Amino acid sequence: TNRTFTMIKPDGVENGHIGGILNMITEGGFRIVAMKLTQLTVADAKAFYAVHAERPFYGELVEFMTRGPIVAAILEKENAVEDFRTLIGATNPANAAEGTIRKKYATSMGENAVHGSDSDENAAIESAFHFAGREMF
Ligand code: GTP
Ligand code: MG
């Protein structure tokens, strides 16, 4: 539908890129519907990336995602999920297109600055995990 969920990951927060990333998001035509600074627990991160549980990088991924605060947000735009995946760029910043958030701010495949939901269904699940109805505008 017209909403997606994003996180500025711990590396993006640590490196001082909250402002730069939010600027690219709003310049990209997305409206911020909900937003907070929060931190994932190990259980949260394991559940969030459960699809990768059997992958060799899973432990490293969970450790990374829990090591500091993140910015969680819900974004609104027509075709939000697909358009936001385009704006963030490829998972590996070496393959990310010019003008994408990961091209500018990601440092590696693991530490890639930002998350974007991969489907409308997951966007709804991820949004509901982080935000109560009265926190969405
Ligand atoms: P997310 O928006 O975070 O879900 O990224 P994505 O959808 O572009 O990639 P995917 O869901 O396939 O992988 C989730 C996350 O796992 C990635 O963003 C990376 O941080 C991490 N990841 C994926 N593949 C690798 C890998 O080969 N090595 C390492 N270290 N991390 C990986
Ligand atoms: Mg993904």
UniProtKB/TrEMBL annotation:
Major location (coarse): cytoplasm
Signal sequence, renumbered to the chain: none
Catalysed conversion reaction: a 2'-deoxyribonucleoside 5'-diphosphate + ATP = a 2'-deoxyribonucleoside 5'-triphosphate + ADP; a ribonucleoside 5'-diphosphate + ATP = a ribonucleoside 5'-triphosphate + ADP
Keyword Iron-sulfur in record: no
Compartmental location: Cytoplasm
Nucleoside diphosphate kinase-like domain segment(s): 1-135
A Pfam family the protein falls into: NDK
Cofactor(s) required for function per UniProt: Mg(2+)
Active site per UniProt: H115
GO molecular function: ATP binding; metal ion binding; nucleoside diphosphate kinase activity
Protein name: Nucleoside diphosphate kinase
Source organism of the structure: Flavobacterium lacus
